[in-house]
Model the fold of this input.
Amino acid sequence: MVVNLTKDKGITKVAWAIVSKCQIRIFNRSNDSFFRNTFRIDEKLSGIVRHLMKTVFFSLLILFSLSPTFGQNIQGNSAFTFGEELQFDVTYGWLSLAEAKLQVSKRAITENSRPHYKVDAYGKTKGAATIFGRVNDNWGTHIDTSTLLPSLSYRYIEEGKYRKNEKVHFDQKNRKAKMELFDRDNRTLKEVKEYDLPGQVQDLVSGFYYLRSMDLTNLKKGQSITINGFFDKEIYNLKLIYEGTEQIETSLGVFDTYIFSPLIPQNKLFRGDFPVKVWVTKDQNKIPVKIKANLFIGSLNVDISSAKGLRNN
Done:
């Protein structure tokens, strides 16, 4: 989007150029019928930013929402530990759009009399991007330190005027999930609903850490699997494809990496059959260092900016 300020009879007008279906439309906000009859510009831009931020989260999180996968076995977690913190810069073309963070609590918390990792994923707009729609999201999970299965997941969503506060309690033994939906102030419980699960499942955050605990050394290029998961009141299937290895340069140095691509249903936001790629370090830590999402216009990039508290140095 391009914004130009012009003078007309002493009054400053705003001329907007919006890219839509590979065309650029320029008009004055004050009198163009496109604004009056179609949408309010602040709501439209907030929606665009929300979609881009959701691309960040789904690129980073839904990719790893795994049940047992690739025929690999869990051999005990040696990839991450308490106090780990990964930070990322999110850019869209030349625009610095947002920042994201994955953070493991410094000490264990207790759920059902068992120790758990508390893991939070944060994403928020920054700089000029906040003009078009402020986003401040927190997705989190409590992961059993022994089974690496979630007992609780939660979402605290602030996207423009939109709010959502939700908790999901998992009963992995009895294959049940209980969803609790709260009001916009996260004080009053509005809805409770229970769901049957097909088996033991991961949520969108816990699945990433589950993957990191797995032995990925025997993966074969092109190997894929359909995975069951639970998110947003639904059981879903996710097809994940391993694309091989690559050495890439980051702000933290050069890494040998695994490359993964989730099969995403075609929509107006993404471009190509496999629009999202994630690079995960081919070492004991298995941290994501780069994500690229090819959008209908341009691409979204998520690049690691810092890594603290890694288990393996």
